[in-house]
Design a protein that fits this description.
Blueprint (H helix, E strand, L loop, with lengths): L12 H6 L8 E2 L10 H14 L5 H19 L6 E4 L2 H10 L8 E4 L7 H13 L2 E4 L9 H7 L4 E7 L11 H11 L2 E5 L18 E5 L11 E5 L1 H5 L42 H17 L1 H21 L16 E4 L12 H12 L2 E2 L1 E3 L2 E5 L6 H15 L2
Parallel strand pairs: 1-10, 3-4, 3-5, 5-6, 6-7
Antiparallel strand pairs: 2-8, 7-8, 9-12, 11-12
Length: 400
Amino acid sequence: MSLPNTPPASLDLAQARDLFPGLREVVYMDVAGRAPMCTPVRQALNTYFDAAQTGGDKAAMFRSLEAARSGFARLVHCHPDEIAITKNISEGLNIVATSLPWRAGDNVVVCEALEHANNVYVWRNLQRRLGIEIRNLHSSDGQYPVQDMIAAIDSRTRIVTACTHTFTPGFRTDLHTLGSACRMAGALFLLDGAQSLGITEIDLSRLPVDALAVSTQKGLLGLYGMGFLYVRRELAQAMEPVYLARFGVDLGEAGEAAADDGVLALMPAARRFDLGNYNFPAAVAVEASMALLQQVGIARIEAHTRALAATLAQGLTHLGLQVCGGAVHPTRDHIVSVGRPGAGHNASGDARMQSLYESLSAQGVKLSIRKDMLRFSLHLYNNEADVSRVLEIASRWRSQ
């Protein structure tokens, strides 16, 4: 399935911003929630739906699906066989959790305060069903208590789980230190990559990571309803999927509806976790959006968004606002959170933060409220003018 008007082989940040026409009148700082649609994605979907009017081309759909799988593998530096196609992060986490031979008394190490709820309930469900132990560590000023998590690992620890960047306030996790400790202890290191993939570099060929789940609607600039699950080859080969469908069974070149002769052979590595059929429109979309990300370059995106977030954090602090981690923080990348942590989702229990949120929203700034804090999250399309606009609105609000 060809993509019309494909952008040139290399794009600078200004050219990339021009591919987001919906942002001409909006300051969009909510990629940690979901991404705005870019022109290449819209064009790819138009092509797909035009073909769908006459039934579509199933072979072309599969080619796009495999191109998306390979594109993500290139992005994170692994082999395509180590990537399963999922519908979201929750499914990826549950695939890993249910494909291991748990015994009552085994434990998982987690810091629930920093996780999305879906990396909490998966373990509570195993606790309810199988009697596993959840070792829930307290967060440390919005960061994982890495040394405490390492100290909690013992011979019965099956999994240590974390976010690459915390759900909120969005600080970067020390993946190498935590993952290395897991590797030494024989525990698996499972990551939720919701807030980093497509914005910051993740090189799985260099990191001691066993599995990573991500969805496509955030930093990857795609749609809801699709995700990728990386599982290290040696681990995946030893895992037994609880659910199995045709695409998880190795029948060589046989058709998609073929069945075996009774000798069950699973697909290599993470491909055994694929359940068909696929969300082909989402695959077409993320194939196009990942091409855009690679045309700009993840290293450039990371440096750009980190610099903008630093300017935003310093400016908000100068205005007297309580920026989580202060004006300068060593593990702040592309997310800036403002206010005192609480429990509010989409609305803040802090009347002052709610007032600032409403003022920003009314003047065309898109952001989120998570755990009572205002969360600003940036991507390649943001620029210095966006930051200046937010600071200008916040300054006027303060003086009211």
